[in-house]
User: Which sequence fits this backbone?
């Protein structure tokens, strides 16, 4: 695969709405991408990042809420318990926070970066972040959970981000060829 620097796609980028493919054959390339994703997540002070956010339509996520790094392949939630509402942000939707109702506790199955099956039990914030990232693999974003009034009050901001995504898409080639660092404010 190309050795270009990973870039975070913003709301409006069609890649964020695609369903990511299940990975059948885990390779060194996937491990390299997961490491780069983790690096980018830390650099942007995020707690999670999903492959579609960097333009890769495969089922990979990285998560770290400060209790250790998870690099997961093909994650899927097999059980949900309870409810919680946590205000969530997203690296692809800078400057916006939405209250999302999610399960308080989840059980998920995934594979590690070498294909070993994993079973993970998560609660509270960690459960929330896993659900957020797994949503990304299905093309679901936090704005989809916004109430009517939240949508109204965020309309202008969302349009701004979409315009920014459009401008970015138009200059994407130039940016990746020059290998410039293009850091947005968020
Ligand atoms: Zn997100």
Assistant:
């Amino acid at each position: 695969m190309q050795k270009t620097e990973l870039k975070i796609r913003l709301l409006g980028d069609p890649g964020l709405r695609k369903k990511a493919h299940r990975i059948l054959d885990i390779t060194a390339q996937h491990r390299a991408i997961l490491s780069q994703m983790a690096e980018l997540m830390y650099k942007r002070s995020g707690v999670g990042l999903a492959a579609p956010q960097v333009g890769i339509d495969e089922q990979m996520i990285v998560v770290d809420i400060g209790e250790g790094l998870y690099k997961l392949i093909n994650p899927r939630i097999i059980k949900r318990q309870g409810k919680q509402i946590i205000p969530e942000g997203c690296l692809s939707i800078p400057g916006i926070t939405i209250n999302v109702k999610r399960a308080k506790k989840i059980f998920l199955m995934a594979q590690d970066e070498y294909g070993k099956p994993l079973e993970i039990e998560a609660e509270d914030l960690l459960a929330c972040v896993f659900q957020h990232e797994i949503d990304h693999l299905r093309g679901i974003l936090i704005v989809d959970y916004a109430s009517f009034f939240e949508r109204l009050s965020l309309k202008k901001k969302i349009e701004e981000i979409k315009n920014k995504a459009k401008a970015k898409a138009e200059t994407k080639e130039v940016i990746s060829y020059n290998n410039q660092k293009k850091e947005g404010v968020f």
About this structure: The CA atoms of residues 89 and 96 lie 6 Å apart. DSSP finds three helices and seven strands in the chain. The pocket of zinc ion is lined by residues 90-92, 132, 136 (CB under 6 Å).
